[in-house]
Amino acid sequence: MEATLKKRALLVLEDGSIFQGESIGCDGKSIGEVVFNTSMSGYQEILTDPSYAQQIVTLTYPHIGNVGVNEEDEECDRIFSTGLVVKDVPRIYSNFRGKESLPDYLSRKGIVAIADIDTRRLTRILREKGAQRGCIMAGENLSEEEALAAAQGFAGLKGMDLAKEVTTDKAYGWNEGSWQLPPLEQLTLSADQAKFKVVAYDYGVKRNILRMLVDRGCDVTVVPAKTPASEVLAMKPDGVFLSNGPGDPEPCDYAIDAIKEVLEHKVPTFGICLGHQLLGLASGAKTAKMKFGHHGANHPVQDLETQKVMITSQNHGFAVDEATLPETLKATHRSLFDDSLQGIERTDVPAFSFQGHPEASPGPHDIAPIFDKFIALMENQG
Ligand SMILES: NC(=O)CC[C@H](N)C(=O)O
Fold it and tell me: Is 33 labeled as catalytic in the residue annotation?
């Protein structure tokens, strides 16, 4: 139960800022875009969210690792994030589900990570200058010069298609629903219980999205990001789901083309985060990179029709630009932090999407009912 913290580590940003700390992962050097996440819980879900590929995540909440890691909270098998930065990791973790300490988990998964740095100073830099390219070095022979050169050598996420890197190799079926507490038990759906056949494009999908579809009676088939629309349409789905995922949506031309074709066939379509951005692009809108993005679990978002405000979970660095919406796209939700666009709906075909995370893993459940809107869309179409 007791984690050993002894090796030194270094975090260097592209602007030359240097942070000295302690290694809480494996030895080595890792680069990526450094972003901050303000969630107070859910570090295991954050680490295993494929949307963090090529990003180094700083958690602003100061005590990370208190409950260790468990067997249920991973959003995918791998950690695609290229590093973790925290203030303080406790020497002892404690939770009835806890199986391993956070540092042991990071080492086993091959992740370079740093603790014991001033994460408030780091976050202020990211907020003022925008997300920075950065490098974490851990172990022996640390070199500030080498880390700075590595940070500055990172190409940055703009123009980077990472959905094709993190997607599944093969299509697979998913029938596991949400975990029930207590007792810890996962619901499953048999084929004859299923009400809707949903094909989910995997651009880096989080498991909790698939679980919430199953909870609502969907028989889900997850397909690789580059699956042609013709193959998806041949499966005669009641609905198509466009997943979250890492990187810039703009270079994902294969996805944009496939979504256009699905929309032409008027198949009910629902997108989350990267899937939302891709629906926007496939409908003729444009996306742009944000200064430091939204990463947290307390972001107020307003439903523009009902005026209702919901507290939501967010994790994105790009956004659909509301000023570029074509006539066939209606704005449905807006962020009350910075007025950026949070939701869109097609006016001519049954398709809509949300920028934040209704599966809220981690996060509040205020916007979870948006999954029911997808179900209603499939019901009306059937
Ligand atoms: N969580 C996501 O799907 C993120 C989408 C996209 N990679 C962005 O950063 O905006």
Answer: no
